[in-house]
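Here is the promised in-class demo. Please do not try to memorize the tokens; focus on the logic of going from shape to residues.
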């Protein structure tokens, strides 16, 4: 295959088409248009390959860190010690007296507990606009383990033998105040009781201090 030669524009000597400098006079030779197009096409191919390789990569955008919110200290509820007087659903209840007799009743008919008696005397004032019904179920003793102690039927009978008014069942009209006793049979030596009391059958329970 015969290679077509080209002439140097400076000295007129024939030179190879791929030569960049004339071997005779040293003149720099211009690249032909076809070769320029070939080079340009090659550059475009290379750029396309580079672009396709980088297309799958995600550019990470720096994010501004959200400032930490100042932590607010938790407010713990303050424990309130029970008192001997409180109000349940607009009914005032007050502990007047607490005794621990050996028995209830008369000398001839004595009511002894399984453990020990705790006799509680209460004052109940009805400040509602209608009458309330009070029963012994409205009043329970609670020990330190939150166990519930209901009033004793035997202890109540012994109290009534001595003409002591009990709170086993009664109706209190608006504005009236009554006083009465409740008897509880608790384990011997057990102390630290509170009373859960309600102002009537539907009254909100409150806690009263006993001993």
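The designed amino acids, position by position:
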């Amino acid at each position: 295959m015969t290679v077509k030669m080209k002439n140097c524009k400076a000295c007129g000597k024939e030179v190879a088409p791929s030569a960049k400098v004339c071997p005779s006079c040293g003149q720099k030779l211009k690249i032909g248009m076809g070769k320029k197009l070939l080079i340009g096409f090659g550059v475009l191919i290379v750029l396309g390959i580079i672009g396709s390789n980088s297309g799958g990569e995600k550019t990470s955008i720096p994010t501004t860190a959200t400032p930490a919110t100042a932590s607010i200290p938790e407010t713990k509820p303050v424990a309130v010690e029970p008192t001997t007087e409180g109000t349940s659903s607009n009914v005032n209840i007050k502990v007047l007296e607490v005794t621990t007799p050996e028995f209830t009743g008369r000398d001839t008919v004595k009511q002894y507990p399984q453990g020990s008696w705790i006799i509680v005397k209460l004052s109940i004032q009805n400040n509602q606009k209608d009458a309330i019904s009070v029963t012994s179920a409205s009043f329970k003793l609670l020990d330190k383990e939150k166990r519930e102690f209901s009033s004793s039927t035997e202890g109540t009978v012994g109290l009534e033998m001595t003409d002591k008014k009990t709170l086993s069942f009664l109706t209190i009209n608006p504005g009236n105040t009554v006083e009465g006793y409740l008897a509880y049979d608790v384990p011997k030596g057990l102390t630290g009781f509170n009373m859960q009391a309600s102002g009537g059958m539907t009254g909100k329970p409150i806690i009263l201090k006993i001993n």
